[in-house]
Write a structure and sequence with these properties.
single chain, 4 helices, 104 residues, mainly alpha
Length: 104
C-alpha cells in the first residue's frame, strides 16, 4: 500500500499544485491536499475491508487446529489478488493523471 499512497500524493500534488501558498499548512488544506487525504483514507479503508475477512479465516483455523477448506482458499486468493490490483491502480492512475495535468 505504501507505493500507492506515495503515488497518490505525488499525483494529487502534480495535478493540483498550490504555488501561491505562503506556509505548509495552507498547502495541506488546499483542494489537492484535501482530495489526497480523502482518497487515501478511502483506499486504506477499502484494503482493510477486503483483507479483514480472509485474514480472520486464516488465523481462526490455526487457533482451532483445523485446515482451510477450498472455498476459503479461493476467497483468500481472490481477495489478495483484488488488493494487489487495487494497489497497482493506486500507483498507475494518479501518476498518469498528474503527468497529464502538468503537461497542460
Amino acid at each position: 500500500m505504501v507505493p500507492g499512497i506515495v503515488a497518490l500524493g505525488i499525483g494529487c500534488g502534480a495535478a493540483y499544485p498550490d504555488f501561491a501558498s505562503e506556509n505548509p499548512t495552507q498547502t495541506v488544506t488546499s483542494f489537492g491536499g484535501l482530495l489526497y487525504m480523502t482518497i487515501c483514507a478511502g483506499f486504506i479503508a477499502l484494503v482493510i475491508v477486503l483483507e479483514a475477512g480472509p485474514v480472520y479465516a486464516v488465523f481462526m483455523p490455526g487457533i482451532r487446529g483445523r485446515a482451510l477448506d477450498a472455498l476459503q482458499w479461493v476467497w483468500l486468493a481472490g481477495s489478495f489478488s483484488l488488493v494487489f490490483v487495487l494497489c497497482a491502480l493506486a500507483v498507475a492512475l494518479p501518476m498518469q493523471m498528474g503527468e497529464k495535468r502538468l503537461r497542460r
